[in-house]
Amino acid sequence: MAHVMGVSLAGEETLGRTPGVHEVHLTEKKVILNHEVAEEEDNTTEWFLDTGATNHMTGSRSAFADLDTGVVGTVKFGDGSVVDIRGRGTVLFQCKNGDHRSLEAVYFIPKLCKNIISIGRLDARGYDAHIYHGVCTLRDPDGLLLAKVKRSPSFLYILKLNMARPICLAANGTETAWRWHARFGHLNFQALRRLAQAEMVRGLPVIDHVDQLCDGCLAGKQRRVPFPDKARFRAQDALELVHGDLCGPIAPATPGGRKYFLLLVDDMSRFMWIRLLSGKHEAAAAIKQFKAGVEMESGRKLRALRTDRGGEFTSVEFTEFCADRGVSRQLTAPYSPQQNGVVERRNLTVVAAARSMLKAAGMPAQFWGEAVMAAVYLWNRSPTKSLDGVTPYEAWHGRRPSVEHLKVFGCVGYVKTVKPNLRKLDDRGTRMVFIGYEQGSKAYRMYDPVSRRVYVSRDVVFDEAAMWPWRDPEVTQTGGEEDFTVEFFSTPLGGNRVPDVVVEHGGARETETAPSPLATPDAAPVWSPVTSSSPAGVEFCTPPSDASIESDGAPPRFRTVNNVLATTTPVLDFDYNDECLIAEQEPFSFKEAEKEQCWMKAMEEEMSSIEGNNTWFLCDLPSDHRAIGLKWVYKIKRSAEGEILKYKARLVAKGYVQQQGIDYEEVFAPVARMETVRLLVALAAHEGWQIHHMDVKSAFLNGELEEDVYVVQPPGFVVEHKENKVLKLKKALYGLKQAPRAWYAKLDSTLANLDFVRSATENAVYTRGEGNARLVVGVYVDDLIITGALGTEIAKFKEQMRSMFSMSNLGLLSYYLGMEVKQTEEGITMSQAGYAGRILEKAGMQGCNPCQVPMDARLKLKKGVEDCIDATQFRSIIGSLRYLVNTRPDLSYSVGYVSRYMENPGAEHWAAMKHILRYVAGSLNIGLKFRKGEEKFPRLVGYSDSDMAGDVDDRKSTTGVLFKLGENLITWQSQKQKIVALSSCEAEYIAATTAACQGIWLARLLGELQMKKPCCTMLKVDNKSAINLCKNPVLHDRSKHIDTRYHFIRERVERKEVEVEYTSSAEQLADILIKPLGKVRFLELRGKLGLSPV
């Protein structure tokens, strides 16, 4: 009988062969090599049925439909001769009705002149061979007749076969049958026929086609299977029993680091759910989310969960979770994955389908995540022997699925271009690749290999006969061939199963077994472990063998890790940010972070920074104090384009347990206002100065504490043998209530020692020097912006700061507080295009139809609506839009107006907000420009305006104020007045008072920066009655009731700190801040404010 004489992995020193070659040595004691006729022509039609041979063998190279030439070795025949083995593969032949059948594991022996089929091998696979009255009858495992062979005069049984070749799907893809075969993930034609004839789905035509194989099926579905046993239990209700299993690790990992997928199968309906995971530790959380979702969807409770005994399923936390919610845990016995055969088989079926789809489309291996998701989507809509006349989808949802929308995975599609401002001759469609179906939406997932991004769209025109040229170097950047492999976690087999052939590939053992004569249908088989000579750390696949005969999945099989999935060509370095399943994620706990090297490195850097700063020392905890806890917070810092800059780990104190008066006193620390930042930028642009940016590393760690504060030792960095000690802080930590104030005090004293003077008007602004040597520094927590006339002074200051703190020199200011800054010789621009794009993504408005104004003219909203919407999401988007106003004064009124209805928003408020988002989508590249001026001291000019009783609910008016330094806009505001004005004069007067307050503050700050006395602020108003009221102390019927505080402007006009001047309504720039305008007027004022494409 055939057995292994010696097995090894090519590439080892004992063989000296190239990696990927497997060597086997066989013995055929009952087969004799005929040397005399060894040079005859290849005869592929005649195959000898041999009960003495233990392997299928042929000497004809042309007989193979698929041949793995990496399998080499020798075979020793009964006459003692030894010949070489040159490969092992699959022979494909065609039946009289046109069906394709395959003969697998056939050895290629060039010196063998005959073709031999081993009856023993067929018997092991479940085939029936019966000889009676000179006729040998062959039947397949389902009992279907394959062949009748008459005995020849030489008393041999010679089977004459019609050799076949796999159908080229690319050449036959236009035929209806083959098209649906590809759409259903290479589902066999018999199953397609069942789907259509039983009307299990809607939209599928009747498929009348012989059961043939395409090239993708041959590459993706080769397997060796034992005959399955019948399952003894079947759930009767949904969620009565759910099978779960983890598949992986899969190589190569997705760009987002996904290496596993979790498959969950409902026993009653056979419906499947899949989740892609980056590590085993995410499995428990995924099951919790699955439980919540399916229980809400079905209205039933999950009663039992069957998994193996992997650590991800047996943790104490997960076990308690299941126990608290009444979920029964069914764990397979050790070394017995057969007890969870339903999901084990489905794992193999999903992987095989995904591999076939990838191979047929020629797609790179990194798309395995999309392929398995699509495979599960299709198998839920495919027939199964476990269900009678229905699909898993119908068994779970109670309705037949529609399949009219199915398309061939990997085909080319043309996605409608929806970007704004298309020109007449621009393309209306973009050529992309179809990679699956968007969950929760009636839309397709399309991948653009040029931009390397994923798009979700329903407006797609498909060319299912065309595939993307992945291997064309002029079209796609590809690397070398890379294996797409899966490592299945289970155990070696032994006991009553008698192995007859064992082949090892680099330590991964592959075993073919014969049914045990001792096993009975009523008794579970008994297994005992078998020792393996495989190297440590190698895990291999052992699928179940007692599979249900009613299963719709592939029967169990044994395969090596290396040949589970075939070789494909990867795409290198592409952006996959739109793929929610394979995105970069920040860990939530130390246990998650410690498994990733990048986060461990970030934590070590943080600890080095803390210890190098002499932040704490180890001591015993006094009896009258308590230690504050510490935790790690993780953040991925990205650029304006969304690229990862660094992984940041921050050690944070749990300051929420501190008590005022005991653990801290004062907590306030000033930061620069956004108006101040824009003023500094405008001044620098006017003078032609450069603005530099510095960042203080771990800024709060530099603040010196006045109170006694004790903290526990940080997670993961506890000093050995001193676990009971605590840390006393000498300097502040992030999270402490007093940390910001302590850092500001430290920075303030440091800048004072460097001869800086703190501004009396803005405590976050410091100045030093005179004339060209003057230096201005703006502080926002740990970010410093520095500007001045001389680059040498800026460089000197940077060196001084580096000598005192650990600083990051970020060079010229380019990205600050979410704002993108560009500095050129003509001036400086500020925009928030990246932030605006993220708002649209958050609101699900990417690709929406843009508009040219943020709000319809004469739009009036009111409170008290009945059709309420999700207030949380509404408030979240409005909050994001309000931060966008920092560089977009054109949005100030519209965003402020809809903000009034956050308490109880309705459908009309939501529609108004979406209108704003459409305007944002059409003006993403709009930014604020600060131009270089010629005047030595630019003048501060303000505009104030007001509508009259514009709010329909309380009849209050809206104030609009803006100020320009020379030609550069620096501040603006649009807000509802706090009292009801009785006339337009009163409303304008109140607005002018608000503008005067802002103007006086700006004039004082500007005077400090320019080292001169504050100038008189020019304020332009378009209401002459309000101007007269500002200049003259007149009290008459229309003004005598005005609150005293609003007469502040009259006093400032008398002191000549404010000069009020009339401007016509046509020149009133603040008009854009008080009401919605028509398109022409809006665009005119937007341009005058300095907003333009950047």
UniProtKB/TrEMBL annotation:
Domain called Integrase catalytic: residue spans: 224-400
GO biological process: DNA integration; proteolysis
The protein, known as: cDNA clone:J023111N02, full insert sequence
Protease found in the keyword field: yes
Domain of life: Eukaryota
Gene Ontology molecular function terms on file: aspartic-type endopeptidase activity; metal ion binding; nucleic acid binding
Origin organism lineage: Eukaryota, Viridiplantae, Streptophyta, Embryophyta, Tracheophyta
One Pfam family this sequence matches: gag_pre-integrs
Entries under InterPro entries matching the protein: DNA/RNA_pol_sf (IPR043502), GAG-pre-integrase_dom (IPR025724), Integrase_cat-core (IPR001584), PolX-like_BBD (IPR054722), Retrotran_Ty1/copia-like (IPR039537), RNaseH-like_sf (IPR012337), RNaseH_sf (IPR036397), RVT_2 (IPR013103)
SUPFAM superfamilies, per database record: DNA/RNA polymerases, Ribonuclease H-like
Species name: Oryza sativa subsp. japonica (Rice)
Xref: CDD domains: RNase_HI_RT_Ty1
Annotated region described as Disordered, given as residue ranges: 509-529
Keywords attached to this entry: Aspartyl protease, Hydrolase, Metal-binding, Protease
Cross-referenced Gene3D superfamilies: Ribonuclease H-like superfamily/Ribonuclease H
